[in-house]
Write a structure and sequence with these properties.
two-stranded antiparallel sheet
Length: about 210
């Protein structure tokens, strides 16, 4: 059996299996997911609002078309929002509160708020609450090295998913261990901040 056919058959089986379950809660109980039904509902509500097709401001529309390769028309923007909903749910669900970050770093919540204001840490509002995405922390719980320098070079109003993409997408200019590395991996491995800052500055110049 071809790989494509095998995957299609497996997906159909998965769909039938999930269809046999009586509720979303039952589906969640059988799957290893990092977010709750309530968080999924909030994200879907956000997606529904995005699908309303609100017109983007001229600057954001130009940036979208230049960097995404997708027309910035209301229908295309809405469709793209729908396609990215899973990534946003995962990012929101795995982010940390200010209290959690304070405990992780051994600092006060007041200090964490100062770090946020000074762009030493990155945060955004998710469903009305301030969260700090997990990608900016190492496995040991510390902030990614030289994070402040890079954040300072990025546009201050860049969308949270765009910021995450900048740090988590392999970059051809960051060559490590025989291949392109993500900004996060590069910095954690001791890579210099300068090439990353140049990339961030170039992004800012086009925004």
């Amino acid at each position: 059996m071809a790989v494509k056919e095998f995957k299609a058959g497996r997906n159909q089986a998965g769909i039938k299996k999930n269809a046999d379950r009586e509720s979303v809660e039952e589906w969640f109980s059988h799957e290893s997911l990092s977010f709750s039904p309530a968080e999924l509902i909030l994200a879907l509500e956000g997606m529904r609002r995005d699908l309303s097709g609100a017109e983007l401001p001229a600057r954001d529309r130009a940036f979208w078309e230049t960097n995404s390769g997708i027309s910035a028309g209301p229908e295309d923007v809405g469709r793209s929002s729908a396609n990215s909903i899973a990534a946003r749910v995962l990012m929101d669900a795995t982010s940390h509160t200010a209290a959690e970050v304070a405990e992780r770093l051994g600092l006060s919540q007041s200090t964490i708020r100062h770090y946020r204001a000074e762009r030493k840490l990155y945060s955004y509002l998710a469903n009305g609450r301030l969260v700090f995405p997990a990608w900016q922390f190492t496995a040991s719980g510390k902030a990614v090295p030289r994070l402040e320098q890079v954040l300072g070079a990025l546009p201050v109003d860049l969308h949270p998913q765009a910021v995450a993409g900048f740090f988590l997408t392999p970059q051809a200019d960051l060559f490590l261990h025989g291949g392109p590395a993500t900004v996060k991996v590069w910095l954690e491995a001791g890579g210099a901040a300068e090439p990353v800052v140049r990339m961030a500055a170039a992004l800012s110049a086009g925004y």
